[in-house]
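Structure (tokenized):
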């Protein structure tokens, strides 16, 4: 029975890891992908706009 108690933790961790990977893969894309991409693009544009004047030395 020692072999069973030695194998249970790795098997449980492997099952949880597979579950996490499946959730990550399933949540990629989908209906909200365009909305998320637009939010990221807007944040990047705002960060670039805020950085540009100080990079030119105008500030």
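Design, position by position:
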């Amino acid at each position: 029975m020692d072999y069973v108690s030695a194998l249970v933790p790795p098997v449980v961790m492997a099952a949880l890891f597979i579950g996490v990977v499946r959730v990550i893969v399933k949540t990629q894309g989908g209906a909200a992908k365009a909305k998320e991409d637009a939010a990221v693009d807007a944040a990047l544009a705002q960060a670039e706009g805020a950085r540009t004047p100080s990079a030119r030395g105008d500030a």
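Reviewer-requested clarification: The CA atoms of residues 13 and 58 lie 55 Å apart. The helical segments are 2-27, 33-56.
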